[in-house]
Amino acid sequence: MTALLRAFGLGFGFQARELAVSTNAYFSLVSAPFFTITLLSMVTYSGRGDLASYAVVAPTLMTLWLAALMYAGEMISEDREGGRLELLVASPVSFPALLFGRLCGAMLLALPAFGLSILAAGLVMDAWITIHHPVLFVLTALAVTVSTAATAAAFSALFVLAPSARIVQNTLPMPVFVLSGVMVPITLFPGWLEAVGRLLYLSWGADLMRDALAPEAVEHAALRLLMVLALGALGLLIGGATIVRFLRRARSEGTLSQV
Amino acid sequence: MTFSPVRAARTVRGAAMVAHADFWTIYTWRSWSFAWLVRLLCQVVFFALVGVLVGDPEYTAFIIVGAAMMVCVTETMLTSSSTCWERMQGRMPLITASPVEPVLLFFGRSVFWPVSAAVTTSVALLAVPPFFGDPWALWKVPFVIVLAALTALTTYCLALVVGALALSFTEVRNIASTVMTLYTTAFSGAMVPLDFWPPVLRWIAQALPVTHGLDAVRALQDGDLGAVAAASGLMLAVGAVWFVVATLAFRRVLARARRGRGGLD
């Protein structure tokens, strides 16, 4: 367990340091304020200023997801191109834990994304958002961030095993944003579609984040928080197992640099 | 060098062959239909659902048209990246030395984006509204397709200017197209009427071809063919201006490269 945590910590620290100097990371933040302004203009125009917090939550989650998929797609392949993959696999640290740590480090992007959304809403549209349940909001944001990194780990495994699946990187975000109700709660969907959406951790996270910003009391907060984490953990289990299997096969066949 | 239509056509055709090959390297019929097109349709549905959220069917119909037209911008702006591929693949010295008009070469080189955008936008404009209870009258369908194609063509002229700028700064090629797409989505009158925004943003919006494309499609919804023609004319005029700007921009980039100041390695 200590070894796993150490690998996680190493990955997290490395990625956090890289994030600070990565231009690409900052580029991925540009969409947050624009999406906030667009969505906020829509709810304001239609006289539903009470939905302003929705227009801040959605861009934050969208930026997080887009960044997660970007890192999931690039991380292992960059390690391979840079000649680091063989060294990392040969080292005694757990590769999945290291990868998960790195993805969690990359998810620190959520912080400036949320800040930019809040600022865009306040400065451009004069809609200052109040966080009515700050503790729950922070806990939910953390849970969503960790679950996003966990899901990204599963995707990075998929991208390594099937490079053609990279098309998923471009295709998946929009259907996921619709299905998980990052902007429009899935309770508005037909029953069967809502049931599909409930399978995604993001739908639980988006609902809970919106509720944490609203003044009303939040129902079943602990249970819903647990659902976000449980669905994220499922992603991590699948991703971790797939990566371990892939590495074992690549090592036994000597094909690590070719896959 | 005097302008020769035959040579111009040959330049565009040659570059379009590269575009054709590139497009089918990126996509197969299956990945274009079931991945790319589905992604763009989901983008339209994502915004349309905001109309459902606020409980206003009329506004939902407004958003659907706006979001469908943004599909055109999203796809056409990818020209910024494909223009830079020439530099990244080391062909710029050959282009710089060749006697062709650069804008014609780059027009042909990325032409697969507006062609694909015309199709995806038409599909988005025609396929999404029925799901929200607002289908097009049959006689309007050919007009929708023509307007989608004109919007793609004129937006492409603007995208070529972005591409010319990105050619000198290749590291910003993706961010430039993303910002243009996001800005247009927010401030072109796609999601909320232009009147919502301050005058300065309304004026800037007039320089975006898609603003007039949106006017044309909305006039078509109302059955006002006179307004459709007027908005289409404006869109073509704005597109033509951007084409002239793109011509000058590409000439300048290559002229700087010939003097060794562009770094087009």
UniProtKB/TrEMBL annotation, chain A:
Alphabetic keyword roster: Membrane, Transmembrane, Transmembrane helix
Membrane topology type: Multi-pass membrane protein
Domain ABC-2 type transporter transmembrane: 35-238
Domain of life: Bacteria
InterPro entries associated with the record: ABC-2_transporter (IPR052902), ABC2_TM (IPR013525)
UniProt keyword Acyltransferase, yes or no: no
Protein name: ABC transporter permease
Lineage: Bacteria, Bacillati, Actinomycetota, Actinomycetes, Streptosporangiales
TrEMBL record, chain B:
Protein's cellular compartments: Cell membrane; Membrane
Phylogenetic placement of the source organism: Bacteria, Bacillati, Actinomycetota, Actinomycetes, Streptosporangiales
Regions that span the bilayer: 34-53, 59-78, 111-132, 144-169, 181-205, 225-250
Primary location class: membrane
Record's keyword terms, sorted: Antibiotic resistance, Cell membrane, Membrane, Transmembrane, Transmembrane helix, Transport
Pfam families with a match to the protein in the record: ABC2_membrane (PF01061)
Protein family according to the UniProt entry: Belongs to the ABC-2 integral membrane protein family.
The name this protein goes by in its record: Transport permease protein
Topological category with respect to the lipid bilayer: Multi-pass membrane protein
Ranges of residues in domain ABC transmembrane type-2: 26-253
